[in-house]
Amino acid sequence: MSRSAHPAGPRHADVLTEGHYAAPPADLNALDEKVWARTVSRDDDGAVTVGGIEVTRLAEEFGTPAYFLDESDFRARCRAWADAFGPDADVFYAGKAFLSRAVVRWLKEEGLNLDVCSGGELTTALDAGMPAERIAFHGNNKTVAEIERAVRAGVGRIVLDSFQEIVRVSHIAQQLGRRQRVQIRVTVGVEAHTHEFIATAHEDQKFGIALAGGQAAEAVRRALTLDGLELVGIHSHIGSQIFDMAGFEVSARRVVQLLTEVRDEHGVELPEIDLGGGLGIAYTSDDDPREPHEIAKALGDIVSRECEAAGLATPRISVEPGRAIVGPTAFTLYEVGTVKHLEGLRTYVSVDGGMSDNIRTALYDAEYSVALVSRRSDAEPMLVRVVGKHCESGDIVVKDAFLPSDLAPGDLIAVPATGAYCRSMASNYNHALRPPVVAVRDGEARVIVRRETEEDLLRLDVG
Ligand SMILES: *Cc1c(COP(=O)(O)O)cnc(C)c1O
User: Fold this and answer.
1) Were both Cys, which of 49, 174, 258, 459 would link to 228 (CB 3.0–4.6 Å)?
2) Of 117, 307, 391, 422, which one is the catalytic site residue?
3) For the whole model, what pTM was predicted?
4) What homologous superfamily is domain 14-70+328-460 in, according to CATH?
């Protein structure tokens, strides 16, 4: 295609000086495999397919907006994580990223374990047949009813998040005549987010018990004395969308240090450490995520080195990727409704969804990519902002991206890497109907979470 030095349409100094918005990509029809699910490709006619099915057909059958999830990619990512960590470690999928009964069955079949953080997630997991011993239950304020259900169900572990919870879980387990396997969640003094980690001000948060000031050591002391608990390990989760392994290194080192102190004080070697999730994915072509085997090697090396130095047997490691498994496997398909050119300002492309199906842009200033997927176009690139249909100026799906300048109402555009924290955080704002999740695999498409209907809305509204 011909390519101009500058994108057509409005230009912005603030946007154009930033990284990948400085110039349009060489070919707007190309789909960067880093950000798209594995079976997504553009066929000779220019239409995009997933799992062998054209998105135009999917739109006709399932409507828009809708999430399309590449099941074989999801399963392949599960296997990649399980293989990378091997039989001496455990991979827990973080259900909060996206959970449905079909997903639970895939996890079960692919040999993964599951993290839940609410009664609703626990119900979904158990209903779909995940064995309770493969479930871990997290959260900073589990209710008494939730703890009771989890203990009764026999979940593999409960992650204790506070001093009060140590006593609460022990009490409930004793009442039920159980001894519950637990880990203690510690805050290691590292808070990691995209491209960086912060080594101060991290203890100021609602999660976990601080290593600093001997708090975590005191929590271990108490947990070891309570009859309702079997303390099996220490848990740490340092952030989200992390690319840099340095934060995990500090975290692993500090957790092993605590294990050493516990051994020295109590003569007990805790057999497990959980290093949490938070591994980053590519939302745009600028992101370079680590492969599971690199992560497994880096974490394994740090833990065994530190344990060897301390004379500890290497504990069983677990990790909890959510985003890194489901994030890249889905995209959201939208229909373009209006295209508004504001001369000298910006072009707004409005779609039939928005912040109700993807709150991350508004909530975290998240970055996304977008592509025209119902046809190919060789028109000049134009810089646009993709926005939703909600009554809120902050209702932005993709802040800045290039789309072809012949984009018109009725075109289908897709935002990749929306598998994590989009459907799971979806809302009914403006009485929007939450979109369906459609699993696509080998030429077949199947609804795994159906679209909400107006009857669903009215059913909750009891007048
Ligand atoms: C959110 C969360 C995860 C998953 O985080 P991702 O960024 O999706 O990998 C794992 N463990 C805990 C304790 C969490 O809170």
Assistant:
1) 174
2) 391
3) 0.94
4) Lyase, Ornithine Decarboxylase; Chain A, domain 1 (2.40.37.10)
